[in-house]
Amino acid sequence: HTTLETRVPLLRDKAFINGQWVAAASGKNFDVIDPASGRVVGSVPDMDASDTTAAIQAAADAFQTWKHTTAKERSEYLRKWYDVLVKHHNDLATLITAEAGKPWKEAHGEVSYGNSFVEWFSEEARRTHGEILASPTRTKEMILIKQPIGVVALITPWNFPIAMITRKAGAALAAGCTCVVKPAEDTPLTALALAQLGEEAGLPKGVFNVVTSNRHHAPEVGKALCESPLVAGISFTGSTAVGKLLYKQSSSGVKRLALELGGNAPFIVFSSADIDKAVDGAIASKFRNCGQTCVSANRFLIQEEIFDVFVEKICSKINTLKMGYGMDHSISLGPLINTTQSHKVNTIVQDAIKKGAKVHLGAKPASSLGERFYEPTVLTNINESMMCYKEEIFGPVAVCIRQTEEEAMTIANNTRQGLAGYFFSNDIPQLWRVAKELAVGMVGINEGMISTAEAAFGGIKESGIGREGSHHGIDEFTYTKYMCFGNL
Ligand code: ADP
């Protein structure tokens, strides 16, 4: 794989602990695969609990000085990191396409989005001030200050290899915390590139550590992070099952916890909607990253009067999307991240077909492109017994359900998840009513793309705890200390 290596920039084959590039104590590495071609992009250390303990210790030592930096100093460090990231925008995008298979244009979009959190939190770092209270007593004065909680563990998924890290790490560093990042096993190279560019920007040693591990070591690395008394908080983005496990594991130490878990986003189109705009929003929400985002529309609930025309229009729009290798700039649909994921998507689709779903498009692997590619799929005739009705699909499958206005809200909220929800309507009272009624943390109203550093990202119910981005993002990494000055 030499030719590939020379093409992919910022490649590292060591993890990053205490400002040093280190191998796993066991000496073992694992390969990172390009999901489009199946080729090896690079190889990184397969670390375990002992390496994790070393990273935690490094972060704990660094915290002793980092916590004393001023807000302005932390702002400047983050700004420098941001400037270096911007300088390497193309390199980062190439790396993301190589290890995540994301189409070139989307990889560039993700780098802008990912970098924007470092920029945003470099600005927000300056505003981590507290409050002076109006004392009820003449002899006492009271203030609230914000302090960093300490070392934080950031466990991240593969679907946004840069943004899921910067959204957490930007806020953590701005607050004055130091961090140990455990990136997903499918996309550790982007995390290491972030560390490398942080090093170039002059981040002090031990402030940003990256521990890479293969899937079979993830549980012991996670356990070490959750159970270490030196770790003050865990911030996780990933599956609901792993999130629940981390919740349990970190209860013994009463750790601060932020969880951003799976969604099951409803996408409702009411009959008053502009159908063309709704179709564009549906494509953006469903087919970005080939359906592999936690805010992807999972169920299209289309009012009966416009159902047939919506299905027809979404099918013809999908037919204009080109699937293939992400480095080709004309591609808008890449592969799924790995074979486990493509088998899962096919199982969900075949289950629906067996139970009576009608196939309008796709419903099979795009085998001529490789085993991880899955054809964009549109299904109708959906019923409650189907897996696609309840489960997060995480693939390019549009499930369209015909319903009346009354049914829409019940179906939309009839799930244990509550991350994002979308609806299209031009009826003003309905806009307010539905936006307030949807049991989700984020609502796209006549809009399919809602993520930005300025906004508070997060869910309710089993979709998670806490918010990322916005000024609320920093709160996850600080605690409020009350100081009472008496006998004045
Ligand atoms: P996905 O299904 O999208 O891969 P996961 O929740 O399995 O989502 O993975 C998200 C992150 O959680 C990855 O970094 C993965 O390595 C990590 N992970 C998986 N299992 C565990 C575990 N038992 N403890 C801690 N982290 C884990």
UniProtKB/TrEMBL annotation:
PROSITE patterns named in the record: ALDEHYDE_DEHYDR_GLU
GO biological process entries: gamma-aminobutyric acid catabolic process
Pathway: Amino-acid degradation; 4-aminobutanoate degradation
Single GO MF descriptor: succinate-semialdehyde dehydrogenase (NAD+) activity
Keywords for the protein's UniProt record, in alphabetical order: Mitochondrion, NAD, Oxidoreductase
Location relative to the cell: Mitochondrion
Pfam families on file: Aldedh
Residues in Aldehyde dehydrogenase domain copies: 21-482
UniProt GO cellular component terms: mitochondrion
TM regions (residue ranges): none
Xref: SUPFAM superfamilies: ALDH-like
Top-rank EC class of the record's enzyme: oxidoreductase
InterPro entries: Ald_DH/histidinol_DH, Ald_DH_C, Ald_DH_CS_GLU, Ald_DH_N, Aldehyde_DH_dom, Aldehyde_DH_Superfamily, Succ_semiAld_DH
EC code(s) of this entry: 1.2.1.24
Catalytic activities: succinate semialdehyde + NAD(+) + H2O = succinate + NADH + 2 H(+)
Active site positions: E260
Function of the protein: Catalyzes one step in the degradation of the inhibitory neurotransmitter gamma-aminobutyric acid (GABA).
Family: Belongs to the aldehyde dehydrogenase family.
Alphabetized PANTHER family for the sequence: SUCCINATE-SEMIALDEHYDE DEHYDROGENASE, MITOCHONDRIAL
Quaternary data: Homotetramer.
Protein's name in the database: Succinate-semialdehyde dehydrogenase
